[in-house]
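note to self — DONT lose this again. spent like an hour looking for the file last time. sequence + predicted structure for the chain T wanted, 66 res
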Amino acid sequence: MAYPLWFRGIDRLAPASVSLLTLANPLVATAAGFLVLGRTLTGWQLTGFAIALTALTLSRTLRSPR
């Protein structure tokens, strides 16, 4: 079910949004592992996660106007 939803979603989104979604995939998987499976992250992994999340957020908010 995930693949049809994924491809339906990327078919309807702008290319810039799709590229940001592909960057968000590892972050969502990490968060799901942490929340659902009870996995733990080391300090360095948490730092990397925070950097990646910040970069993704900034790329979304600091986009140049169309």
